[in-house]
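Propose amino acids for all 318 sites.
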């Protein structure tokens, strides 16, 4: 009696059938499957009872497939091949190295991603995950403790943080300190009131980046103007942006002048989309740090990324 159609045939029976049908021999199938010929014969019998049809004609010195077996064999081989492929993919994924990198949005978009191809090219087998998180800025979502050593998908994680550098339970490398300079579109160097000296800012719109919530951790326009001794410019006027990238995009479009860290806008400066009208810097209390949780510090992927990142940062220190 055939089994109900909603039940799947036993996998061992299907494997025995595929080997025996391909080799036309229970003995050869048993050798391939590392079982006895009797075990193969038993599995074939179970499958025939399940299907309610004969699959082999047992001749004196040979096996012959029935019409039902010949029709079924290609699909059974296809299914077993798909199962084997799925298992191989899972094993390969588990064996592959993986790494999650978390960084502040502005750093990730404007500094890390433009350079990342050099790292991935030298580590093609590494499964890399990059996540931009505002929580990588001190005072946003996390305190002074380093976040957990594992990402949600259990891959080792390293972090780039914008903060004061004090993170318990982690190895900390300073990447570069935060020195802010005014940046704007080259258009603002021309026109009725070209930007040539700091006092010319009175004729231009000031763009404000409010990424960091704590007072004093990064210079604002009031701090910068005071540091350079410029008077007569309203430091509070102009639009305010909650994300540094938005303020920079506004500057690129010629909307006004914003303060930015030169390393983060170097590519825009080199491409001519931004200029530094006067290279007068103002320091910030925060800096960028690579934070490696102690639990993942010895992971090969973590070590490789740390070595690469510190090498990339080298020129920015000059």
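Proposal:
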């Amino acid at each position: 009696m055939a089994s109900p159609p909603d039940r799947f045939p036993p996998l061992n029976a299907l494997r025995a059938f595929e080997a025996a049908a391909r080799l036309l021999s229970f003995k050869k199938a048993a050798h391939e499957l590392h079982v006895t010929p009797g075990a193969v014969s038993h599995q074939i019998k179970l499958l025939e009872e399940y299907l309610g049809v004969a699959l082999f004609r047992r001749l004196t010195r040979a096996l012959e497939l029935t019409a039902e077996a010949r029709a079924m064999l290609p699909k059974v081989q296809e299914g077993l091949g798909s199962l084997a492929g799925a298992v191989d993919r899972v094993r390969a994924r588990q064996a592959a190295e993986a790494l999650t990198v978390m960084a502040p949005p502005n750093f990730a978009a404007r500094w890390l991603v433009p350079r990342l191809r050099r790292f991935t090219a030298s580590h093609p087998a590494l499964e890399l995950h990059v996540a931009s998180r505002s929580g990588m800025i001190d005072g946003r979502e996390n305190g002074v403790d380093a976040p957990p050593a594992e990402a949600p998908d259990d891959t080792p994680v390293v972090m780039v943080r914008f903060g004061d550098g004090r993170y318990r339970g982690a190895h900390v490398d300073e990447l570069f300190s935060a020195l802010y300079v005014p940046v704007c579109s080259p258009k603002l160097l021309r026109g009725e009131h070209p930007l040539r000296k700091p006092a010319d800012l009175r004729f231009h719109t000031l763009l404000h980046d409010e990424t960091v919530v704590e007072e004093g951790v990064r210079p604002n326009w009031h701090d910068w103007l005071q540091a350079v001794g410029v008077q007569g410019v309203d430091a509070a006027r102009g639009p305010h942006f909650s994300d540094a990238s938005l303020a920079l995009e506004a500057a690129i479009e010629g909307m006004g002048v914003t303060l930015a860290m030169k390393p983060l806008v170097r590519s825009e400066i080199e491409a001519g989309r931004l200029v530094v009208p006067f290279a007068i810097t103002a320091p910030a209390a925060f800096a960028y740090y690579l934070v490696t949780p102690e639990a993942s510090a010895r992971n090969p992927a973590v070590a490789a990324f740390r070595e690469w990142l510190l090498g990339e940062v080298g020129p920015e220190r000059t």
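Strands lie at 56-58, 63-65, 98-103, 127-132, 157-163, 170-183, 208-209, 240-241, 258-261, 282-293. The first strand starts at residue 56 and ends at 58.
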